[in-house]
Automatic annotation (TrEMBL):
Organism superkingdom: Bacteria
SUPFAM superfamilies: MFS general substrate transporter
Membrane-related topology note: Multi-pass membrane protein
GO MF assignments: transmembrane transporter activity
Gene source species: Solirubrobacter pauli
GO CC, one annotated term: plasma membrane
TM helices/strands, residue ranges: 12-37, 49-69, 81-100, 106-128, 140-162, 168-190, 202-221, 227-246, 267-287, 299-321, 328-347, 353-378, 390-413, 433-453
Stored InterPro entries: MFS (IPR011701), MFS_dom (IPR020846), MFS_trans_sf (IPR036259)
A UniProt-annotated Pfam family: MFS_1
Entry's localization field: Cell membrane
Protein name: EmrB/QacA subfamily drug resistance transporter
Domain Major facilitator superfamily (MFS) profile: start-end pairs: 15-457
The keyword Magnesium is annotated on this UniProt entry: no
C-alpha cells in the first residue's frame, strides 16, 4: 500500500534529498579511497597486487550486480532494495573501518560493492516515478546527476582531509552515521511500492549469466592480463541475450533496448565516462607526482570542477533541457569536455595550476554539468514504469564499466609512453598522451551523439520551470 505521506509534493523533494545523500555516500567511496591508498599499503603491509584488490573487490561486486539489482528492484520493490543496499553498505563501511588485516579489508570492500549496487541501481528509477512531469523530472534528474558527477571530486578532498587529520580508517567510518541517518529518513519518506512480483521475471539462469558476465568483464578490465577472460565475458553476455529472447519470463525485456535514445545514451555515457574518470585518475597523479601536491592540496584542486558542475546541474541544465531538448544541450557540452581534456594534454613538467590545470577543469566542469543530466534524461526516456529500475541499473552499469575501462586504458597508455620511468619528464609524456586519448574519447562521444540520437523536439514546459524556484526542496 502506498504511503500517502511520501506522495505529498513537498515530501517528494525531501525524499529526493535523502536518495541523493545515500547515493553521494556510495559515489564518494569510489574515489575517497584513492588518496589514502599509500597509507593503507604501509599500515597493512600490502603488496602492490594486494593494494589493487582494495579497489578491485569493490568494483567487481558493484559493476557486476548493478543490472541485476535494478531488475530486482522492479520485481520486489525499489524502496525495499534501496533500503537493503543502504543498510548493507553502511555495515560494510564499519567493517572496513575496523579492518586490521588485508583479508578483512578486501572482504569488507566486496560487501560494500554489493550494498552499493543494491542501493544505487534503483535510485534513478525511483526519481522518474516520483517526478512524472517533464519540468520537475528534469530538475530532479539534474540534482541526481550533480551528486553523481561532483561526488568523485568531493571524495578526493574528503579522503585527503580525513587521512591527514585522523587516519585512513575514518574514510570508511564516516559513512556509518550518514548511512544510519539516510536509512531512518528514507523509511517514512519513500513510497511503499509492492513491485511486480518475482513471478513476473524470476529468470534465475539469466540472472546467473548476466552477473557472471559483468563481474568477469569488470575483472578483465581492472586486473586480468589475458583478454581470454574478456572473450568469455562476451560469450556469457551473448548467451544471456539469447536466453532473454526465448525465456518465458525474461530478466531483461529486450523491448527496452529498442529505443534508439536509450541505447544511444548508454553508448555515449560509456565513452564519455571512460574519458572523464580516466582523466580524474591521471590528473591526481599529475598533481602529486609532477607538481608535488600533497593529499589535501590535490583534493582541494578539484573543487572548481565540483563548483562548476553544481552551478550547471542544479538549475541551468534542467531549464536548458526543458527548453531545447536533451540532445541539443548534450552536443556543445561534449565539445567543451573534449576541449578541456585537450587543454590538459598540454600541461608541462613545470606546469602552473592556475594556467595549465584550472582552465581545463572549468571547461570540463561546465561540460560535465550539462552532459550527465542530458544523458540521464535520454537514458530514461520512453521507459515503461515497470522497467524503470532496470533502466536505472543499466545506466549505472554503463557508468561503472565505462569508468573501469577508461582508467585501465589511459593508465596503460600513460605507463607505455613514460617507459616505466618515474622522473617528472617521463611521467608528463605519459600523462599528456593519455589526456589526449581522453579528449579523443570525448570527441567520439560527440560524434555518436550527432549520429545516433534522434532529433526530437523539446518539451514545451519551459515557462513552468522558470516560474519555480531552483531549490533542493519544495
Amino acid at each position: 500500500m502506498t504511503d500517502r505521506f511520501a506522495l505529498r509534493p513537498e515530501n517528494r523533494w525531501f525524499a529526493l534529498v535523502v536518495l541523493c545523500v545515500g547515493f553521494l555516500m556510495i559515489v564518494l567511496d569510489s574515489t575517497i579511497v584513492n588518496v589514502a591508498l599509500p597509507v593503507i599499503q604501509t599500515d597493512l603491509e600490502l603488496s602492490s597486487g594486494g593494494l589493487a584488490w582494495v579497489i578491485n573487490a569493490y568494483l567487481i561486486a558493484f559493476g557486476g550486480l548493478l543490472l541485476l539489482a535494478g531488475r530486482v528492484g522492479d520485481l520486489v520493490g525499489r524502496r525495499q532494495v534501496f533500503l537493503a543496499g543502504l543498510a548493507l553498505f553502511t555495515f560494510a563501511s564499519l567493517l572496513c573501518g575496523l579492518a586490521e588485516t588485508p583479508g578483512q579489508l578486501i572482504a569488507a570492500r566486496f560487501l560494500q560493492g554489493v550494498g552499493g549496487a543494491l542501493g544505487s541501481a534503483v535510485i534513478l528509477g525511483m526519481i522518474v516515478t516520483m517526478f512524472p512531469q517533464p519540468g520537475e523530472q528534469a530538475k530532479a534528474i539534474a540534482i541526481f546527476s550533480f551528486v553523481g558527477s561532483a561526488g568523485a571530486s568531493i571524495g578526493l578532498l574528503m579522503g585527503g582531509v580525513l587521512t591527514q587529520l585522523l587516519s585512513w580508517h575514518w574514510i570508511f567510518i564516516v559513512n556509518v552515521p550518514i548511512g544510519i541517518a539516510a536509512f531512518l529518513l528514507a523509511r517514512p519518506l519513500l513510497a511503499r511500492e509492492p513491485g511486480l512480483g518475482l513471478r513476473a521475471g524470476a529468470d534465475v539462469p539469466g540472472a546467473v549469466l548476466v552477473t557472471a558476465a559483468l563481474m568477469l568483464a569488470v575483472y578483465t578490465i581492472v586486473d586480468a592480463e589475458s583478454w581470454l577472460l574478456g572473450g568469455i565475458a562476451v560469450g556469457l553476455l551473448a548467451l544471456f541475450v539469447a536466453r532473454q529472447a526465448t525465456a518465458e519470463k525474461p530478466l531483461l525485456r529486450l523491448g527496452v533496448l529498442k529505443s534508439r535514445d536509450v541505447v544511444g545514451a548508454n553508448l555515449i555515457l560509456l565513452v564519455a565516462v571512460a574519458g572523464m574518470l580516466g582523466m580524474s585518475f591521471l590528473a591526481v597523479l599529475y598533481l602529486q607526482r609532477v607538481l608535488g601536491y600533497n593529499a589535501f592540496e590535490t583534493g582541494a584542486s578539484f573543487l572548481p570542477i565540483s563548483v562548476a558542475i553544481g552551478a550547471l546541474s542544479l538549475s541551468v541544465s534542467a531549464r536548458l533541457i526543458t527548453r531545447y531538448g536533451a540532445r541539443l544541450v548534450l552536443l556543445p557540452a561534449l565539445a567543451l569536455m573534449a576541449a578541456g581534456l585537450a587543454l590538459l594534454g598540454q600541461a608541462g613538467v613545470d606546469g602552473n595550476y592556475w594556467i595549465d590545470v584550472l582552465p581545463a577543469l572549468l571547461l570540463m566542469g561546465v561540460g560535465v554539468g550539462l552532459i550527465f543530466p542530458s544523458l540521464m534524461t535520454l537514458a530514461m526516456s520512453g521507459v515503461a514504469p515497470e522497467d524503470s529500475g532496470l533502466a536505472s541499473g543499466l545506466v549505472n552499469t554503463t557508468q561503472q564499466v565505462g569508468g573501469a575501462f577508461g582508467i585501465a586504458i589511459l593508465a596503460t597508455v600513460a605507463a607505455n609512453e613514460s617507459g616505466g620511468a618515474t622522473d617528472p619528464a617521463s611521467l608528463i609524456a605519459g600523462y599528456n598522451a593519455a589526456f589526449m586519448i581522453a579528449a579523443a574519447l570525448a570527441a567520439a562521444a560527440l560524434i555518436l551523439a550527432i549520429v545516433v540520437l534522434r532529433r526530437a523536439p523539446a518539451t514545451r514546459e519551459a515557462p513552468a520551470v522558470e516560474a519555480e524556484p531552483a531549490v533542493l526542496v519544495g
